[in-house]
Amino acid sequence: MRHIERHRTHRTGWLRAAVLGANDGLVSTASLVLGVIAAGASTHSILVAGVASLVAGAMSMAAGEYVSVSSQADTERADLDRERKELAEDPEQEMEELTSIYVRRGLDRSLAKSVAVQLMNHDALGAHGRDELGISDTLAAKPVQAALASAGTFAAGAALPLLMVLILPKVALLWGIAGSALIFLALLGVVSARTGGAPVWASVIRVAFWGALAMGITAGVGSMFGVPA
Question: Residue 161 and residue 175: Cα distance in Å, rounded?
């Protein structure tokens, strides 16, 4: 019977950006809204602040992810260009370098040499990129994918506390938004853990703790510096 293993490494690029975006959107917008509520603002002002946070945050996340991942992609391309030049100038040295890598990984020298020869005959640059530089198609930087994932998930996360503002009466906003945000954060922890194959409880506790801390501090600041409505 054929055994098919299911790995999740191919998800790391977009999963990291998506989890970061959703968590940041939910925590930052919920915290801001709680701070404004604690300061005694009107419902209209709370909504304006929340929508501004959603739009600005989503654009900031997209730009930040695109720039940072583009820098990573530029570095990867530069390393591959350097490797391509070295392969053209001194293929024997590059063959020895690849052989040494496989020897350090546990192969005897004759087998390591045979593997290096076959892989370099098939795709020399790919072999060196993967085994020497740690660059592969699966883990390669994808700036547009990361930017879209971050912006979209940030907006989705930020929309949740705004939904609570619309459906809850003002007297219930403070605890309603805080409670629902913690529930959403816990669900986010479950989803990210399941998607990435990580322990669920560790992920849930991690996101809920830091979210609660951020919301508590922001609400406290709003209460200290706000004025009654």
Answer: 11
